[in-house]
Amino acid sequence: MQTGARPTITDVARAAGVSVATVSKVINDRYGVAPATAERVRTVIAGLGYESSLVARSMRSHRTGVLGILLAEFEPFSTELLKGLAAGTSGSEYELLAWSGGGGPEGRVGWERRSLSQLSGTLIDGAVLITPTVVDLHSPTPVVAIDPHLGGSGLPVVDSDNLAGAVSAVEHLLGLGHRRIALLGGRTDLESARQREEGYRRTLAAAGIPLDPALVAVGGYRPETSEAPAHALLTLPDRPTAVFAANDLTAIRTMEVARSLGLRVPEDLSVVGFDNVPESALATPALTTVSQPLHAMGVAAMTMLLSLLRGEELAERHLRLPTELVVRASTRRV
Is the entire prediction scored with pTM above 0.85? Predict the structure, then answer.
């Protein structure tokens, strides 16, 4: 075998002094191999570091033992979900393959179809889709969606209570005496962003505060797309005294823009985010935010997928987990 080359089943057979068929029987735990011979083959396999390919494994057994986590991109939100998904797999016989097929920050509509087509059947036995753009999928393998763009679907879904979370954020600011409260919203094509804006509007209306369209801007869930609208909000002649940003990354960028304008947070401006990713607690000042149970969402989605793989009926096909306001240093009474 060449140095650095991946060992093959032929290399194992040659080193163990047996046939390729015998090695195959040992790998697949089939009968017909003497215990001493099987032990010798396993020793050689361990010594060479031999692993059969996923494709070869799936051709033999029609399963790979691998579950796909398909996402548009790796960023703080999806990274926290991945931790929960990995925890949900603990104790099972499955390994995880994280696959980014979304084509960049804005994603490409339908990337899930392409990814599932590439992976299903030969590389993965099932998949969890993180914020998929489409949900009318026909996959040969079980699929669960987390926080799909368009909300509920025919797929099993896990998400959080975005509307209630937004209500709690705006109620917190109202309770601190703020009346000029701006919304730096998320992407207009996402159901989560729509629900957070609905919570904002509904809470202001319940408090008898007329909606000022000048205080509503689209931040797009990304720091680079939120900087200009945050600057526009904070330089209004009658600027807001508080901003509810639709996620933590845009809330943190809003605080940076405020500092560049000479505004102090929270003395001159209170800011609330959404998600409670680790960056929120590390921000200066630490960010008040609405916590999505991202770890629990990942665990729940994986629990659903494992149930489907066992052929079980799901007790719930749309699981919505509660959100919780986390008060830190970025908000204060006016």
Answer: no
